[in-house]
Each structure stands twice: as structure tokens, then as C-alpha cells.
Queue: 4 jobs
Job 1
Amino acid sequence: MTHTARRIGRSLALVLPVVLVLSGTLAVSAVPWAGNSSGTELLASSTDVSTPAKSRAPQDVLRDQLLAELQEKDPGTALTHLQREVENRPSLAKHCMSIAKSLGAAAVRHYGPTRAQSFSRPVCDTSFATGVMHAS
């Protein structure tokens, strides 16, 4: 057992410094000051990296998801999911009307006013229909 341990130790003693030197060399060559401008530079911008990224409000995330769903499927499916989300998370109820209006306006842009109106439902006090009407 000691012979095997010695062999492993000797192998590590020979291989480990080589691996460390190579990885250090590769790490230093990848930084922007190495002179190789291959497009893999660090992204330094005018934004302050010490400030945390602002998280998006749940209603904005939901609005974006539903607008994408409206494009992929149809406004009826998006309205059904809006109603379910408002039922599951009552805190979204105060934003339901604005989200439904946005869906209505997007439906007009995607389907035209007549077809968009055909998807209208009594979700959020018929705000979807209001959005269709204002976008027409």
C-alpha cells in the first residue's frame, strides 16, 4: 500500500507543477492586456458593476410572457393564462387591466382589429376589448 501511495505522490509531484504553469499561462494570455485582440475581451461598459441588476416586477414578467404567448398561439390562450395567474396570485389583480389592454393592442397589431375583437372575453373588466378599440 505504501508503495502505491509513493507512486501516486511522485506522479502528482511531477504533473501538478506542469498543469499549474500551463493553466496560469493560458489564463494570463486570455486577459485584454496580453495584446491579443481576438474579440474575447472583458466587457467594460459605462454601467456601474457595483450596483445590483434591477429585478423586473412580476407584472412586467407576466406581460412579456403573455405577449410572447399571444404571438405563438392566440390571444384567447393568453387571456386564459392571465385569468389563471390573477386567480393564483391576487397581488397581480391591480395590474390585470393594463396587461389585458396590452394584449388587446398586440392582438390588433398581429391579427387586425376584426379578428382581434373575436378573441375578446370578460377578463379584467373587458380591458382586452378596450385595448383592441384603442389600437384600432
Job 2
Amino acid sequence: MTGAEELLTRTRKLLAEHPPSTTDRTDFLRARFDAGLAWVHYPVGLGGLDAPRALQAVVDAELAAAGAPDNDPRKIGIGLGMAAPTVLAHGTDEVRRRFLRPLWVGEEVWCQLFSEPGAGSDLAALATRAVRDGEDWVVDGQKVWTSSAHTARWAILIARTDPDAPKHRGITYFVCDMTDPGVEVRPLRQITGEAEFNEVFLTGVRIPDAHRLGEVGDGWRVAQTTLMNERVSIGGARIPREGGMIGKVAATWRERPALRTHELHRRLLDHWVEAEVARLAGERLRQQLVAGRPGPEGSAMKLAFARLNQAISGLEVELLGDEGLLYGEWEMRRPELVDFTGRDAGYRYLRSKGNSIEGGTSEVLLNIVAERVLGLPPEPRNDKDVAWKDLAR
């Protein structure tokens, strides 16, 4: 098994052969992937070396110290956090070789075509259809709340392939080409004034069967790989102590004593402690991931992330008083990423409202935690064995 010393040797060899100061950024990232130093725990030839996941930190620290470029993970977070683990777990060897390298390098952006106007919290009720036509599938339907669809080259897509089966069992998982002429992306303007989300219309989109992940009708199980990784990537991101949104409020508190009140101080301390507990819980979750796939604990982390962000951003607006009511700009933009800490308090307050919806609503996550973490009795579900076509809509 590859150990820390061998990884250091390989990393230093990469740096010697491709000096970051003189090597094109994309060329360096491609070389890093080919050296197995992208995801060290991935298989050889797919950006990894079959090494323990925990040793990724050894590589990252050495590269950071040398000033090597990263792959801008915030911009390609859906690909890294959701598409890649699903492709690795359920894709054929050909699919893995085709997609993982340009995904990790950042040459191809990914988006997620899951939610629909009538299938958000109840995702398994989705109505987008995929019909087999020779070696292709023809897809028709509508998806919504699709982050990065306006910049994406590829999408992970779930569609209904058997309307006669119960809703969870008639779904199949695909990789969809966003440049297909049947794909139409329209912006969804949000409360922030921006449109980082989109709605996507699919009309006669042809997807080769070779781009199917998993077996026909087994898409719901494949989608669980995506959803569990999604919640970990949203709620379990590694941040330093007093990083993220709590750091912005704490800095304002220290720098502007005239804004302080006893009540705001008490609430700031409460949120600071909650943020630190969430950070440490995230560290523990990442250590557990070293041993296997993410579990339902990621749902609890994402739930905590949403609640904490909304509470902290509300406190920040109150702390700033009249200044907290200001908003930097309201022009219609289509950003490539969400930047909570690089914007003003008004943006953070408005944008955090979406945290309890995106990546699984807080209500759904509470059910997951109750049933799969705490072992409480499941909610009654009378439609589990009813054919999708017979469900009331």
C-alpha cells in the first residue's frame, strides 16, 4: 500500500518535472492527475494510487507550500463532490476514463438534473421520461433549481424509464450532454437578484446507453450515492477555526466596539460555540469517510450548516444596525460560484435562506436523521408499492 513517504516522493517529482512557476496551470493539473495525486484514494489510472484517503492531506500540503495551483474546487464543486463519486462507484471503465480526468482538472463543469417542479422534496415522484430507442435513450421533461447549468458541459440526470413500476423502482441514472440541441437552460432569478440557479428543459435529448450509470430501473439506488456525497460536500467542507460566516461576524465585533450590546454578545457566543461544534463534527465525519462511503450523518451536517448560516447571517445584520440593511448591488448576474464570505452582510442574509432548501430540504433531512441515524419508526408511506402512473398528481 502506498504510504506517506512514497506520496511525498511522487509529489516532489511532480514539482521538479512541472515547476508551478513555469508550467501552464491546466498542464500542471493534468500531470498531477496522471501522477495519481488528484484523489490518492481513487484507483490507479483514475487520478489515484489506491492509497488511504487520509494521506491526501500530505500531498495537498506539499503542493500548497510549493505554490502549485489548485483546480478551483468551489467552481467545480458539483463535479468533484457529487458526479465523481457516482461515476467511480457505478460507471463502466470506459465512462470513468472519459469523465474523471477533465472533471477533476476543471476542463468540464458539471451540474445536477434531479429536482423538478413537481418533484423536489419527493424526488422519487419525478416525471422526466427516458424512452429506449436503439442504442440511445430519448429524454423529455423539465428540471429546476439547477446550479451551474449555464456553464456546465455535462449533467448527472435521473429520469423515469418504467412508469408501471413504483416510483422508486422505475428510475434510471444517466450522464447528459448539456450541449445537446434539445437542452434549453433558462435563468431563475433569486432573492439576491442573481441567477446562479436555472431551469432546464429537455426535448428529445438523445443519451447513448453507454452513458447510463447502473442498471436500468436502479437509478434511485445510484442517486443515493450522489445525494449522500452532496450533503457531505455542502455541510462538511473543511474550514479553519472561526472560518466561514462566523469569522465575518466575529471580526466585526472585535473591530467595531460601538456596535456591541450585551444581548448580541450572548448570541454571538452561542453561535460561535455552535460553529465550532459543527466544524469539529465535520472533521470527525471526514475521518469516518476514510473507512468507507458517506452515511446518513452527512444529512445531519448539512442540516446544521443551513440552520447555523441563517442564524449567523441574521445576527450579523442586527449587529450592523442600519448598515445591515444596505445591499451592494441588485443587477442581474449569472455567477459561476457562490461566495458567502466575499460579499456583504445583506447578500449573506438573503443567500443563506436557500441553504435550507438546496441539497435536500431541512424537513427531509430531519426525516433521514430520525429514521437512519436515530432508528425511529419511519413515516407512513402509502405510495411505496403503487405504480408511478397511478399516483395522484
Job 3
Amino acid sequence: MSAVEDRLAELGLKLPQVVPPLASYQPAVRTGAYVHTSGQLPMVDGSLPVTGKVGAEVGPEQAKELAATCALNALAAVKSVIGDLDKIVRVVKVVGFVASAPDFTGQPGVINGASELLGEVLGDKGVHARSAVGVAVLPIDAPVEVEMQVEVAD
């Protein structure tokens, strides 16, 4: 196991299997020194644990936990391309989408779930630039979706 996966285990987490694509795309692709993930939903064992809009059917704290699940799924997608998460040089950028009720404005706090998980797991390598975007709806009525760009070593 890699040091990154050892750290996940210390946190009581396990890297999941890569979530199969819902349409015509790859979960992650590498170009040069970078891996770009597709948007990762908070799938657990092949299904969404909850659906709906944040600020309506889904509370902000629950959505924050779902964003952490998205980040974990994104790490699995990265591993599927590079084989060993210890090759991560740094997370460069995270983009988080939050399916939001019309009056919900707490998108940054929700996407903190992904950012905080990456920091806990990767330390300084997990510090990144980020966008947190409110949207009307996400695929299969997911509350959150996260994609990331990661610099990797050969």
C-alpha cells in the first residue's frame, strides 16, 4: 500500500473502486504531468446515498460530507491512471458544483468537505486553487460533484 493509502487508513477511510462513467467519458485522463478527473459524484457502492438540492432536501453539513466522498472518488480515479497515489506532486485545482436551492449561498462551505479531505490525506500536496459553484441540478439529482487537476511525477 502507498503512504497516501496508509494515511487514508489512519483516517478510517478506504480508497473505493473507480466509479464507472455514467455516459461517454473516462473517469480520469493524463496529459503530460497532469491528471484531470471527470466530475465525481458522491457514489458509495454504486449508488448515491442521498439526492436533492442543498439547502432544501440536503443539509449543508451532509453535503459537506458528500463533497469529501466526491474527493475520495476523485483520488480513486487518479490512482486508476497513475497506479500509485504517492506519485502525486500536488493537487492543483478543485472545482466543486453544488446543486442548490434558490436561496442557498453556502457553496464554499460545502466544497470545504473535499478541500479538507485532500489536506488531511495529502498534507501540503493537497493545498489547491478552487472554485465552488452553485447549479440548478446535477446528474442523477446528486447534491454535489467534484473534479480536480493533479500534478504527478513519473
Job 4
Amino acid sequence: MPDLRTGKIKYLNELLTAKEISCVELTQKYIDAIKKENTVLNAYVNVTEADALSTAKAVDEKIQRGEELSLLEGIPMTLKDNISTKDVETTCCSKILKGYVPVYDATVWEILKKQNAVLLGKTNMDEFAMGSSSETSCFGGSLNPHNIAHVAGGSSGGTASAVSGSMAVYGLGSDTGGSVRQPASFCGLVGLKPTYGTVSRYGLIAYASSFDQIGPIAGSVEDAAIIYDAVSKYDKKDSTSTGSRVKTADTLNDSIKGMKIGIAEEYFDGVREDIRASIKKALKVYEALGAEIMEIKLPSLKYALPVYYILACAEASSNLGRYDGIRYGCKTDSYKDVNDMISRTRSEGFGKEVQRRILLGTYVLSAGYYDAYYNKAQRLRETIVKAFQDAFLECDVMITPTVPATAFETNYTLQDPVETYLTDICTVPVNIAGLPALSIPCGFDGKGLPIGMQIIGKSFDDARILNAAYQYEQCVKDEIYKKSDMGVTI
């Protein structure tokens, strides 16, 4: 029997189909786990128990009629609180959206809802996805199940905490600069940031529209591939939507003999030695599988962080302009006139980190600074995109650390936010270029905290990076996934 901390969607599907457990019983076990663990981990901000049990009952009735289940049907899961859910409060973990109940579903949830996915609730996150620890949430931060003195990561930290803490089989998060991969790395999970456009952003409350991408956080590569295949559909409601070109779960057993893996030393600047050692150990596994390791150069990587923060904050400044207290969300109680009402509402509703990024974005878009910052950053973005294109003429995939460090201690990121931005160095280049990337566990540090390895591919090479990760996982899964008796057991 597999350890359910690593998900195993097919395993649970087989249990349900064989009637070894009912969907209501399975769902109740996860609800009970949430009631037990969430008071400590703070992964969920809204538990949809009644809706979950109602869906589970419908799945059981379908099983009794002898109808076939899709792989995700009846599987308990969760959504980050910036993914719109009709009739279920969606706050982005911000005071300014308290009480906001969407009148429509995000496309990804609409797809899963039609498959009778069991939504357990909405998970915690950094406010408007701005942060690296989930501690900018108005609900307080999520904690790491591996060590509750450490954060779960961000901004999709609640989703990672829920899956790692056996309070969901899988979850969907959003990745603007690493917000799926970083918490997956911190919590010992698989986190996939798909190629930009393959998964619809319709219904994802925007932070930075040209960077945002919805992706799965799961306990195994196979689970991530199954989820990705389900949600990577073309959506006419999203003008940037393309959908996926292949069914990735069908390619997971392809040989990687002869695959060229690029290693850019620029990705290892400032990376802790134990993380370097874990990546080197993983590369030996790939060599044993027949892959070729080669050095490549990415000198333009040094521009990635300033480019990302200038452009992402500029887009955030524009996207968050709609929160004015007039149309929806909270409104200040005391004001003199309309301008004063908008100013007070935004000052009271947005947290410090969101205000900081709005101000930075407004500054770089203002007259006199637009050319000096925003236009220059856009040109440098093109340079970084071209650098990746050239690098992939030499190699098939790249391997890097996911994060230069393991999970921070609680309150660390709040002391020096700017220093925290530096920890995004390995993840933001992928979002700048719109590439697919995946984080997979590759070891543990001296405190027992997970270390993540990132695999980056060419645009629309999502299947290749998932296969590369799967081949590695099959060789070392007993080492990279720690056994635990915490949470759900069947």
C-alpha cells in the first residue's frame, strides 16, 4: 500500500472502482484530517465540507450504476484562494476581497468540476500571490508539515502544506515567479509550472498577466502529469490560451538515453553547498540512465530578477487598480469624498507587501521613468528569451536548484523582504520566458527539510520534463519521499 503523502491518484481510483472504499468515506477521511491538522498548519482558509460530501455522494451513485470513472473523479483536492469558484468565497487572502463570492468558475475548476473532482476547500496564499512564504496572507502564514517552525513557502504555500500534510491528494496553485515550484520544493512535493498558455488563466485573479500560470502541486510526477493533462485544454475565453500538444501521462516511460542535460553555472551562484551536492548526486542518476551532462552558458541570467520585479510590479499596478471599494470587496467606513474613499479603502485593504509592489509598479510606469525602467526591462526580457532559445539548441532540458535554500524559518521573510526576493533567482527566468519547469524532491538538508531540483524545458516540452522527472523519481523514490504516519491512511 503506497504512502498517501505521495498522492497516488490511480491507486485511489482503483480503490473507488473496486468498491474497497466509498467516495464519501474517502472524502470524510480527508475532512477529518483537515479538522485535525489545519489548526496547526493553517493550510486552508475555507473548507467546503458540505459541497465535498455532496460531490462524493454523486460519485458513489455513479459507481453503483456501474459507470466508469475518470482518473480524477472522486479524488479529494484543493484550490488556491485566487482561483475563482462560483458561490464559494474567493479572497486572494486579502482584506480588500473579504466577502467576495464569484458568480463564475475559473476554467480549470470548471473542467475538474465536470469530472466530479471533490473540492475540499480553498487554500492559504500570500496576499494576491505576492510573497515567498504565505506570511503576507491576511489569515496568517501556512506552516511546513516537515517542520512547523518553518514556512511552507509561497505564494501557493497553503496548497503545498495541504498536500504535504495529507489534507488533499493534490491541489492547483498559480506560478508567477516560482509560486508553485518553490513551495513544492520546500514541502517535498512535485510542482509543475506549465508552458505559458497551455493552461487557461480565465478565472485566475491576476497578479501579473504575462507571467501568471496555473499548475499542479502533487505527491508524484505521475499525479502531476494526470492533472496537467486534465486541465491543459484550449479555452476561447483566454486570449493567450493554446492548450497542450500531447498527453504527457502517455510518455512517462520513454527512455531518456541520449538526452542532453544542460547545466548553467549561473544558476548555482549563491546556492548552499548541501543543495549543490544533492543536485550533483541527482545528475549521477541521470548519467546512469544514459543522459549526457553538458555545461552551458546563460550570462543574461543576472538580469532576471530586476526584469521580473519591474515588469511584474508594473502589471500588478495595473491589474490591482480595479480594487477601489466601489464595485466589489471591502469599503472603508469613514471618508470625505470619492477620492478619499478609494485611498482609504486601498490603504486599509491591501497589506504592506502588496502596497510596496503597487507603488514600485506605478513608479516604473510613470512619466519620466517609463523608458528608463519599463521599456528597458521589456528589451532585456527579449534578451533572456533569446538566451534560452540559444541554450536549447545545445541541450534538451536544463537542471538547476529550485531554490538556493531550504524552507525559511517563520517570520524570516518579513524581516527583509528585498533579501527574500533574491531567493527567486532560480525560478523567475522561466516565467520571463514562458517556459515549462518542474520541481521535484532530490534530498534533504541536515534539519530534514526537503531540497528541490528544477527541470526546465523548451516551450511546449512539458511532456519531456515530466518524463525526465519521472525517470529520476523511479530510481530514487524511496530516498526522496519520507514515510510518515501523519494524516490519511486507508
